[in-house]
Specification:
The chain has 655 residues and is an alpha+beta fold. The protein has 2 domains: 288 residues, Rossmann fold, CATH 3.40.50; 333 residues, Neuraminidase (6 Propeller), CATH 2.120.10.10. It has 7 helices and 39 strands. The strands form 10 sheets. A 7-stranded mixed sheet has the order 3-4-5-2-1-10-11. Strands 16, 17, 18, 19 and 20 form a 5-stranded antiparallel sheet that branches. A 4-stranded antiparallel sheet has the order 12-13-14-15, with no helix packed on it. Strand 3 and strand 4 form a beta hairpin. The protein is globular. The termini are close together.
Length: 655
């Protein structure tokens, strides 16, 4: 196949959001030679005081909104120039661009690297009102404001202050999507979680982040109407501080270096771009590591690894979300390595992470989160379910399963629902698990007669929205969910029975981003996750008597973020399972058992191109292991073992 050009578009609220929340993914796209475009929605003028937030001199400083916004933009360009060329002072070419009728923004193109562009839309974060408050840019989205003015920067080319309406913003973003034709779009969290450590509803995030994501989704829906279906990724922001850090020391050092460039640390007294008095965002001070929310780069919708499975007719099926719609690929015949698709289905908008289950070899049962706008309630998020046709040819429409918090009078609660986990037991019961507003777990079950039970809380505290469920060899269902300090486990004593919390499982602190559990035979489950702060892959395998080891086994890995895909290999151990994860370069890292059973341990090897979300592993109809990823080019990429024998090498990448 002809390689698909990779174009990645970032839409952020402030001049540092991509550096804090999307790096190192941003850096990897730049290193890979992708077309990279970043759009900054607001002027980021804050309080207009460009002095370290810990410096006592701030109290007597005179605010300069234009100066501070100018300095932040200058700092962002310095960071990008450093990432791309190694020279923070590399010049940029700037010019005005009309993005909507009556709305002109400024575009910067890096000298010698015209594949890298920055757009500054410069909407004021807050406009002073008569009562002394500030009308926030969020008012444009919800209709409280008819227009928000822009803040021109020093030396700008976009002209004077412009009044910008809600439709202008959506049109501007749609114009940029149409022009740059991204295969992947990265933006912020539209439904950030509340601070679970405080009473009442205290949002953990900046409201500009959420409204930027809302505007981006509105533009993406229009872009989709024109026939485009990119990969979409949403990044957590301030909520990163709640969960185990998912960057290792090398990635954190790298991230810190570019934040230092943005902050103007080491910058000359005279701005090389000639636009500001103190280049960079000096509010960050001289220590870029003091911010707790920089220690992770995490998706709001934690990626799953169960999206590749053997379906009807012995054909592998792969599932993803492209442009907010369910997409699937299928083998044209069993074990051939030839694929058809993607078939993109359905209306509405679903979040990027799916839960895929079903009886072995049978139709897939897919569960997702759907976001929609209601005139009465605003944004509504519900859990939806669909079933594949018996012959594997397509899907029935989405059926709503509601939301554990949908009846609460505070409608903000239902927007925090976590990504679903789903599993079908041996008798055909479907279990759907999600994290609820209380940061515990709720479950809804379809019985063998097709009737659905109401949502039921299983409890739990301070849980991430990244659980995984499995059916054991005994036909019981188990659920594993990473929490703030450990992994939690719920289990059934008998098929179809009630769920019990396992008080005996004690693990190290998991990094934000997901866990994986597999049936390892003999009634034993093996749990895999990344260790917070190191990103090493850890394994905890249940003992034969059902108890758990006091410590996990470290399996190494190649850094990176996200859940680890796993397939158990008969008569081997936890270190000899087939394992795959997203490495520090954004590429696939794979470990297969050695042909020689006496050779134990992992054998990590990196290959392929940068991909989104998390990899998946499955066996085809012949028993050969297949690994799949969805690239940032929006395509399915697969590798297959040359034979089904353990330790057989993998064939080339296809797709």
């Amino acid at each position: 196949m002809t390689p698909q050009p990779r174009s990645v578009l970032h839409v952020v609220a402030h001049q540092d959001d991509d550096l804090y929340f999307m790096n190192p993914d941003l850096l990897r796209s730049l290193e890979n030679g992708d077309q990279v475009t970043t759009v900054v929605l607001t002027a980021g003028e804050g309080d207009g005081v460009n002095i370290d937030t810990g410096d006592a001199r701030r109290a007597g400083a005179v605010p300069d909104l234009t100066g501070y916004s100018t300095a932040r933009g200058c700092g962002l360009r310095s960071a990008y120039a450093l990432m791309v060329t190694g020279d923070r002072d590399r010049p940029w070419h700037r010019h005005a661009v009309r993005l909507a009728p009556g709305f002109v923004a400024e575009r910067f193109v890096l000298d010698g690297a015209d594949r890298v562009s920055l757009y500054f839309l410069q909407l004021l974060q807050g406009t002073p009102t008569d009562d002394g408050s500030r009308a926030r840019v969020a008012g444009l989205w919800d209709g409280r404001l008819s227009a928000q003015p822009t803040l021109p920067v020093h030396g700008g080319t976009a002209g004077d202050t412009q009044p910008v309406g809600r439709e202008d913003v959506i049109t501007a973003l749609t114009t940029l999507l149409d022009h740059h034709r991204p295969t992947a779009v990265r933006t912020l969290d539209p439904d950030p979680e509340h601070d679970g450590g405080k009473d009442g509803f205290v949002c953990s995030d900046h409201e500009d982040h959420a409204v930027t994501a809302e505007f981006t989704l509105a533009a993406l829906e229009r872009y989709r109407e024109a026939g485009h279906s990119p990969v979409v990724e949403h990044y957590r922001a301030y909520a990163n501080r709640f969960w185990g850090g998912n960057l290792d020391a090398a990635a954190l050092t790298e991230k810190g270096a570019y934040l230092a460039a943005y902050a103007g640390i080491g910058a000359p007294d005279i701005c090389p771009q000639g636009t500001c008095e103190r280049c960079g965002d000096r509010q960050l001070g001289t220590d870029p590591y003091r911010s707790t929310h920089m220690r992770s780069t995490a998706y709001r919708y934690s990626p799953a690894t169960d999206w590749l499975r053997l379906g009807p007719g012995g054909r592998l099926n792969a599932f993803a979300v492209l442009g907010g719609r369910l997409a699937f690929w299928t083998e044209t015949a069993p074990a051939t390595g030839r694929w058809a698709g993607p078939y993109v289905l359905g209306e509405g908008w679903v979040a990027p992470t799916l839960a895929v289950g079903g009886t072995p070899g049978g139709p897939a049962e897919v569960v997702a989160l759907r976001r929609s706008l209601s005139a009465e309630q605003g944004t509504v998020v519900d859990v939806v379910h669909t079933v594949q046709h018996a012959d594997g040819s397509g899907f029935n429409g989405w059926r709503s399963l509601g939301n554990p918090d949908e009846t609460h009078p505070d409608q903000r609660r239902q927007r925090e629902v976590g990504v679903p986990s789903a599993v079908v037991d041996q008798d055909g019961r479907l279990y759907v698990f999600v994290r609820d507003f209380a940061q515990g777990v709720s479950v809804r079950r379809r019985e063998t007669d097709g009737a659905w039970t109401p949502w039921q809380s299983l409890g739990g505290r301070f849980l991430q929205d990244a659980g995984t469920a499995l059916v054991t060899g005994r036909g019981t269902v188990e659920l594993y969910v990473p929490g703030k300090h450990k992994v939690w486990r719920w289990f059934q004593s008998e098929p179809g029975g009630a769920f019990q919390l396992d008080e005996t499982l004690s693990t190290g602190r998991p990094a934000t981003g997901g866990v994986t559990a597999v049936d390892s035979g003999e009634g034993r489950t093996c749990l895999y996750f990344r260790e917070a702060g190191t990103q090493q892959v850890m394994a905890y395998r249940q003992h034969a008597d059902g108890s758990w080891p006091g410590a996990g086994a470290g399996l190494g890995g190649h850094g990176g973020t996200g859940a680890v895909a796993a397939l158990w290999v008969a008569e081997r151990g936890a270190r000899e399972a087939c394992l795959a994860h997203r490495g520090s370069t954004g590429r696939l890292v794979l470990s297969l058992p050695d042909r020689d059973r006496e050779v134990t341990g992992t054998h990590w090897n990196e290959s392929g191109q940068m991909f989104a979300h998390a990899p998946a592993l499955a066996r085809d109809a012949s028993g050969a292991v297949v690994v799949a990823v969805v690239g940032t080019d929006g395509r399915l990429h697969v590798r297959r073992q040359l034979s089904p024998e353990p330790g057989s090498p993998m064939g080339p990448w296809l797709g």
